[in-house]
């Protein structure tokens, strides 16, 4: 490939590069934060064991004796009553305790210090912003890696 | 009341700290049910995990989400194991229970806790209380001349700042930062998986990597500059040898110039301090909140200046994430810079940040007023949850 071909290829690449709008960038950032709350990123390794008859279920020990107390009927009822997701609890709490202090009022305000920026690839302090997605990068090398990997690869 | 009839249970989102009030140390175990790829016969409850020889790809079922008890089924599994013959063999119906719950706990969860322990377990009497209140109580006993205390509880799910004035919690100034150990571990997993090796399924191993290699920087920009140097002149570069669970049971740091023999390694550099830095700058990953040091000053500034003076010299750090090396030094340096010059700044790191609240609970049971803080099963049967709501300060 000669230099003008390369130039035009790069141009074409740049033109076809999608640009994420502000809303999409925010959605993406929120998803990334939510992912940091996850307990597992893979599936339950025992999920498909239920069907297997050879392997004892965990209420039983290997010699077949019951080792765990079965949960009482009362507990089943109790569980039904208190089974709530975090979002449900929060909503309920806003009704029970609308006035501060409550969960919402307890969160600290935003920092007064300016935001710092780190290269999405290598983690060092950086000055540039990817035009397509808003991620930060420090050098041409890291920008290249970013574009080849994360830039617009995951859609929010 | 004899201490052997009181059980203290600090129910953390990551670890449970539990024991009789006359025990000298609590038993510490994961508050989780875990499943391993290598052991398909059974899950592991709490510290049964010690019996698991290969914890790669360990799958967690946690009762606590974002710091609050959500999954009662799993919590019961862990508590049944804890109270049962394999652990403490607690005779709960003749026992008083001191149980921690999170700051500003949701009312529904509080009600569930009381109902569970009184109706399902039939405990003799119950006190539910915040971990910070237990630590502040102990701090007050150890430092009887001090009038105030600001507890900073930096745990797994989040970080709280809880001011106490003359032993009383000032609930309206309790504040929360949405960062704790879990975020740090998950963020570390994220960047290692992107930069080097996919470890997204290895929470257990990467949590150890964090504990073994990460530290808090006391000069962030300076350390960043050092970390940019070539490996030869860069003291922060280390190779972490990952466990293979046959010859290597636990990962360890290997100096960068020492040759390996084909073990799988993760090279750590700026990650070692850039990850804990999130506690001090949550905005580094887009959480628009103050970091710990700034929040300490912010909370103290809510008080009249004569109280501020007492709070600045009685900051107490508890919770597992405070164990990161240099955590205290960093807080000290930051707060000293931001606090009024005439205020003495004294940051105290609990001698064991993980178990401090549990120990505080044991000290509290010796208080002459202790039994008046409890709600007995008889009282509960008569007055119901509303009495608990009145008597327990959460
Ligand atoms: Zn870079
Ligand atoms: Zn991009």
From TrEMBL, chain A:
Q: Could you give a single Gene Ontology term from the biological process aspect?
A: chromatin remodeling
Q: Which UniProt keywords apply?
A: Metal-binding, Zinc, Zinc-finger
**CC annotations in GO:** nucleus
Q: Which CDD domains match?
A: zf-HIT_ZNHIT1_like
- Domain of life according to the entry: Eukaryota
* GO molecular function ontology, one term from the record: zinc ion binding
Compositionally biased intervals (Basic and acidic residues)? 7-24
Name the segments for region: Disordered: 1-25
Q: Where is the HIT-type domain?
A: 119-151
- A Pfam match is zf-HIT
Protein name from the UniProt record: EOG090X0GXS
The organism's taxonomic lineage, starting at the top = Eukaryota, Metazoa, Ecdysozoa, Arthropoda, Crustacea
From TrEMBL, chain B:
Alphabetical list of SUPFAM superfamilies matching this protein: Actin-like ATPase domain
GO CC term, one of those recorded: cytoskeleton
Q: What InterPro entries does the annotation carry? A: Actin, ATPase_NBD
Q: Where in the cell is it found?
A: Cytoplasm, Cytoskeleton; Nucleus
One Pfam match: Actin
Q: Which domain of life is it from?
A: Eukaryota
Supply the CDD domains for this chain. Answer: ASKHA_NBD_Arp6
- Tell me the leader sequence span: none
Q: According to its UniProt record, where is this protein mainly located?
A: cytoplasm
Keyword annotations for this protein, in alphabetical order, are: Cytoplasm, Cytoskeleton, Nucleus
Q: Indicate the family of this protein.
A: Belongs to the actin family. ARP6 subfamily.
What is this protein identified as? Actin-related protein 6
Q: Which organism is it from?
A: Daphnia sinensis
